[in-house]
Amino acid sequence: MRNRAAAVLDSPAAIGLLTGLIASAFVISRIVMAGRGDIAAFVLAGSAHVNAATTPRGLPVFPGQGYDGQFYYRLALDPLDFARSAYGITLDTVSRLQRIGYPALSWLLALGKPSLVPASMVAVNLVELALLGMCGAIFARDAGRHCAWGLLVPGYWGFVMSLSRDLTEITEALFVVVALLMLRRSRPLAAGIAFSAAVLSKEPAALIVLAIGAVRIAGIPARPSGQKVGRGDLAWAIPGSVFVSWQLIVLHATGKIPALRDGHHNLGIPFVAMAQAIAHYVSHLPATVSLLWCTELAGLALVTVLAARWWTRSSAPLGERVAWLLAGLLAVSLAQGIWMGAVDFRSLDDLYVLGILVLLASPARLRLLGAAVPAVWLVAAVHLAVFL
């Protein structure tokens, strides 16, 4: 029976379906418990930014600041409306406008109908998680592993937070993984298109593009004479151009460059905010919030340490491994506002996903990881199924 189940799951389609079913079960649980039967509660709109009297009918507005999903909901109502305030919702910063990928997909799925947007935002993340599981299975199979190991890719607990509150990380991660898969298939044009979608979903994806471009440029002297610029450079040149172009479009519409608006809030001196967060949560043990935070940090630390251990022996392309290093540098340089709070480390998704890809392509035995990741995911899922 066990062998039969293993054989059934040894296909990307099966892993994608399983990922979708698990994510759907979580969504149903959250709707019933935390959302009290209302999927629009996932938006978590707060009265500080949302005027309940002028928002589309059916959106619950809670007292307080709300959460980031309220801004992506506003953009999903009309992705090309660059006004600071629209539909009764005021953006907290113009930098939200650079993360247009997820709202645009949600708008398309909703056919532009405001009443369907809350459901379409959840549906987009569900479908993307299933596709992320399928892609992870392909990476695992290519490395000679059972496809079920691909579940590690969508198994990040930060994605549970993104799914719970209509956030952008899942969209960015999917397009990054698709782009890297296309690169491994020697399809740089397709990779460039996927990377373009990634950088329009969340700007840290630009670091991955930078790593891919840097490795390509460093290899120029080794290219045959007369081939200093080639088709392979499309993978980084296209998304680089798209990222800059979108920044200029938003600049023209708002007078501000979105990438420059939030950098001083999100970045700081390396290791300082991380060390402060660790000291804070460890000192408050065994409080529930501290236990949850420390559990999730331990899971991420395990992935990171293992990826570092096997970095040189991994057969993952050099560009992917350099991208993981840049993701690590970004992670330790994030500001206190990102390290602290009930965020489930969602902003460190690139560090996790790239680390898993490095490990899948290595000789490492992943049994410990195979037990730890689902355990941490389950802890986060139970918590977010109950609490908004």
What can you tell me about this protein's structure?
Helices cover 60% and strands 2% of the residues. With 388 residues, the chain is mostly helical. The protein has one domain. The chain has a two-stranded parallel ribbon. A hairpin with a 2-residue loop joins strand 3 and strand 4 (89-90). Helix 3 (69-77) packs across helix 4 (101-109), helix 9 (205-218) crosses helix 14 and helix 14 (318-332) runs antiparallel to helix 16. The protein is globular, with a radius of gyration of 21 Å. The two termini are 39 Å apart.
What's the domain count?
1
Regarding quaternary structure, what we see is single chain
End-to-end Cα distance, whole Å, is 39 Å
User: What string, H for helix and E for strand, traces the elements in order?
Assistant: HHEEHEEHHHHHHHHHHHHHH
Helical content (DSSP H or I, runs of 4+) = 55-70%
Instruction: Write down how many β-strands occur, each being a DSSP E stretch of 2 or more residues.
Output: 4
Radius of gyration from the alpha-carbon trace, in angstroms:
21 Å
The neighbouring-strand order within the major sheet is: 1-2
Annotation field: number of helices: 17
Quote the beta fraction.
Answer: under 5%
